Amino acid sequence: MHSKGVIRIIAGEYRGRRINVPSRPGLRPTPDRVRETLFNWLGQWLDGQACLDLFAGSGALGFEAASRGAARVVMVESDRTAFDALQATRQTIGAPTVEPLFGDALDYLARAGEQFDVVFLDPPFRQNALPAVLARLPQRLKSAARVYIESDEPAMAPAQFTELKRARAGQVSYQLFEWRGDDQGGLPRNV
């Protein structure tokens, strides 16, 4: 397996542990600075929370969540080489709360029944997968779930999502949303 490099887990139980990043088309691990900002937004620790890393890639976001106390982290990846690297990293660092799953993100959303507190969405930029994923995601979200989106341009989320934070680092836009569900009676929050 050719490697694109190594990134490190920033904080928590697995702090400093290495994640090998396979050299795959479109695979760009979330940079340290962006991960640090994201986990500042999330409150640093995810004790007892269930997380979904839907386009896991290198697993940087999911392993960081596991390191910071997440009770469960499901990582979905459709590239076999990247998936094999996720499994190897899970075993190397000894992360029993991480469950790598091989398969398509949309298929997973259609068949899974589990709901999550935090969801990481970092699909390959050229796939234009976000609209379809955001349409299918609500049934997988617990009340007040937070959804992180990383893309080349700021994402427009459906009305039931409230944008909490937004930033940009180089070519990457990243945002944190909160799932509001139907608690607003279908009205925008500012009405």
Short description:
The protein is of the alpha/beta class and 191 residues long. The protein contains five helices and nine strands.
Describe what you observe in this structure.
It contains five helices and nine strands, in the order E-E-H-E-H-E-H-E-H-E-H-E-E-E. It is globular, with a radius of gyration of 16 Å. It has helices at 32-42, 60-67, 80-93, 105-111, 130-136; strands spanning 3-8, 18-22, 50-53, 72-77, 98-102, 116-121, 141-151, 161-169, 172-179. The termini are far apart. The strands form two sheets. A seven-stranded mixed β-sheet has the order 5-4-3-6-7-9-8, with helices on one face. It has one domain (3-179): Vaccinia Virus protein VP39 (Rossmann fold, 3-Layer(aba) Sandwich), CATH 3.40.50.150. The model is unreliable at 184-191 (pLDDT under 50). With 191 residues, the protein is an alpha/beta fold.
- The helix content is 10-25%
Tertiary shape: globular
Spatial order of the strands forming the largest sheet: 5-4-3-6-7-9-8
- The H-and-E topology, N to C, reads as EEHEHEHEHEHEEE
Overall CATH class = Alpha Beta
Number of helices, where a helix is a run of at least 4 consecutive DSSP H or I residues: 5
Tell me the domain tally: 1
CATH superfamily: Vaccinia Virus protein VP39
How much of the residues is beta strand, in percent? 25-35%
Instruction: Count the beta strands.
Output: 9
In the CATH hierarchy, the architecture is 3-Layer(aba) Sandwich
Report the major sheet: 7 strands, mixed
Report the span from N to C terminus: 54 Å
